[in-house]
Design goal:
Blueprint (H helix, E strand, L loop, with lengths): L2 E5 L4 H12 L3 E6 L2 H11 L2 E4 L5 H15 L4 E4 L11 H26 L6 E5 L6 H4 L13 H20 L4 E5 L18 H12 L9 E4 L2 E2 L3
Parallel strand pairs: 1-2, 1-4, 2-3, 4-5, 5-6, 6-7
Antiparallel strand pairs: 7-8
Helix pairs in contact: 1-7, 3-4, 4-6
Length: about 230
Amino acid sequence: MTVTLITGANRGIGFETARQLLALGHTVYIGARDAERGEKAAAELGARFVQLDVTDDASVGQALETIGRTEGALDVLINNAGVMATGVPDGPSALRSFDTNAVGIVRVTEAALPWLRRSANPMVVNITSSMGSFWAATTPERPEFHITSGPLYAASKSAATMLTVQYAKAHPGIKFNALEPGYTATDMTAEMEGGRPVEESAAVVVRMATLDVDGPTGTYSDENGVLPW
């Protein structure tokens, strides 16, 4: 049985990814900051719930200890939790963006490493964004070139991608990949127009979370393949 933890999974892409992985036979833990919402989401899906606030060291440590002691190992970690700051950037919003979108990856990954090492095929998928790609943001033909809102989100996702590369180099026995799941209609993007169904983007995450033992590591990609940095 493959044991999977998805952070920020009580809604959106994380929730649908949990649904699809459960259908593939995974034991899925839904990590959510809000216990009531997380428990409701887990009950709806038939998943397991663990209270996990990626901005709180104690919460993260307790969550991973609970999973590890219960299951004996962790096979897949999907760092999905994220926030998008709106309005004029300032110090508090910058700290919140980076604390959730980048530092949160460090907290959860470090707490997960001892349990990932017990897996026969451990992998970490970090949900990032092409908004954080220097290539995409400076290429006029790309939609990211024309996006001027969300600078803190873009910068923090750029940090998330670099963390992925560094973790892959530091831990060659574990696959670390950064993934742009595609522009999706979720609560996070409600203020923006468009976005495809969450089922389509979750399927991209599922493909990356179900790599075989010889799968790639240290990549930054979307559903069409590796993206330029």
